[in-house]
Amino acid sequence: RNRLFDSSRRNRLLYYKPNSRFVNLTAGSVPVLPFDTDQLPERLFTWNAAISRQIIGMKDLQLNRYLHFTDHPYLQAQLNGIRKKAENDEKEYGFSQLQLVVAFLHWYNLKEDSSRRIQSPLLLLPVKLKRSKGVKEDHFTLEILDNEAIVNPVLANYWKDLYGITLPEHIALDKTGIDQCYQALKN
Known about the structure:
Structural class: alpha+beta
Radius of gyration: 18 Å
Distance between the termini: 28 Å
Low-confidence stretches: none
Mean pLDDT: 88
Strand content: 15-25%
Number of helices: 6
Largest sheet: 6 strands, antiparallel
Helix content: 25-40%
């Protein structure tokens, strides 16, 4: 099974590069126009107290509350394309590959190229993206299917082969916080 993992630069679970198959919800939540800096941290789509409570409680996230579709006109089409692809995968293969990346890992491969910084998804949550048509704009809802995050299996396998570091397969976010996960990884 381990030999089946693709560890080349083409694998986006190991070497993440943004493209049309991915939506950066944090970037889409940053307003371009002048904004109130006091309320900005709560309005960004990042791992904060409000969003973590909703994810841990497996409550739906209303993306329109966070995303600025007028400032980022590509978002609606990109989200709708991802939603359609996930629905087609579910119909064709019986499951959806749609994941919400809760945490990224920025690291350097010290054995091969210590100067190039690598960005890899670390914690993945299975989600379902729903759309309801609106008059002004479509409304997108992110349904959290599980509050147990999957540790990126490609990254875990690569680190085990490269450094002998064993990462867990899953992290229960209702029992283990992101800060505890970070400290364990740092150690």
